Amino acid sequence: MSEIFGIPTQALFGQLLIGLINGSFYALLSLGLAVIFGMLNIINFAHGAQYMMGAFCAYFLLSKLGLGYWWALLLAPVIVGATGIVIERLMLARLYQLDHLYGLLLTFGLALVIQGLFRNEFGSSGLPYNIPKGLEGGRNLGFMFLPNYRAWVVVASLVVCLATWFVIEKTRLGAYLRAATENPALVQAFGINVPRMITLTYGFGVGLAALAGVMAAPIYQVNPLMGADLIIVVFAVVVIGGMGSIMGSIVTGFALGVIEGLTKVFYPEASNTVIFIIMAIVLLVRPQGLFGQR
Questions:
Q1: pLDDT of residue 271
Q2: First-to-last C-alpha distance (Å) of the chain
Q3: Would you say 27 and 216 are in contact if contact means Cβ atoms under 8 Å apart?
């Protein structure tokens, strides 16, 4: 068996693949957080719970309605995004004139309530969700075995992330969104309904979290605590990339997933803390993040 730096090639590339998969979820979730923070200026602590809701929505669509993975991939982000719209209209909209801490506390409380309700109903052992038939099996690349579903997750996440970046940075709709974050009164004067735009933006950010939850269900199972285990790492990714930076969330998410995966090969003891070590260094050297603005 060939080796690289004394590490078996199959083990090295296997961990690299795991890092890319984790990075895919880091990127999607941090992208949703960046979109919400950039538009609403609120740190959405309920993002992990909404990611978990996406996975459960896929499970319910399959077990109750018989709708498989591909339908869940379309419907779950819409359904969970709609719940996000309700939350924004009924709760978050009342806090925009207050200190940002109130929005953080509200979403943190919502996360605890949502996770508690699902945990009381379904326990914490996890519910199985099968890989869709079209993506079962894998390919032998010689140096490693590549499961088809894992490859799909990486590619699909990258496509969604880049499409979101393109819409926000390169289209007229994105220009309105960016302008509304800096001067909502001026955008309103041009006939744009800014409150509706804010509401839909929050729903879209929540929908991204739900999409990540659907894609994660066949890999990690459906668990009420799956979001709580991930959201702290995702916040670290957002801080490193730069709060509100779209490209920072994408690049940092994938990069830190790979770094975390490689750390498990070369220095396993630091694999659970390497992202937080990087965050501490970035905060000391460049507090606004790698892609953020002062």
A1: 83
A2: 50
A3: no
- In the prediction, which pLDDT does 84 show? 94
Q: In sequence order, what DSSP letters do the residues of the chain get, joined into one string?
A: --EETTEEHHHHHHHHHHHHHHHHHHHHHHHHHHHHHHHH----TTHHHHHHHHHHHHHHHHHHH---HHHHHHHHHHHHHHHHHHHHHHTGGGGTTS-HHHHHHHHHHHHHHHHHHHHHHH-SS-B--PPPGGG-SEEE-SSSEEEHHHHHHHHHHHHHHHHHHHHHHHSHHHHHHHHHHH-HHHHHHTT--HHHHHHHHHHHHHHHHHHHHHHHHHHH-B-TTTTHHHHHHHHHHHHHH-TT-HHHHHHHHHHHHHHHHHHHHH-GGGTTTHHHHHHHHHHHH-TT-SS---
pLDDT tens, 66-85? Answer: 899 999 999 999 999 999 99
Q: What domains lie within the chain, and their CATH numbers? A: 3-124+146-285 (1.10.3470)
- pLDDT of 1 above 70: no
pTM, rounded to two decimals: 0.91
Task: Report pLDDT for 23.
Answer: 92
Residues 6 or more apart whose Cβ sits within 8 Å of residue 62: 68, 69, 72, 129
User: Which amino acid, residue 85?
Assistant: I
Supply the pLDDT for residue 80: 96
Q: Which of 272, 263, 261 is nearest to 150 (CA)?
A: 261
Q: What is the pLDDT of residues 213-272, one digit of tens each?
A: 999 999 988 999 998 878 889 989 999 988 878 888 999 999 999 999 888 888 888 888
Four-residue CA torsion sign, 152, 156, 157, 158 = positive
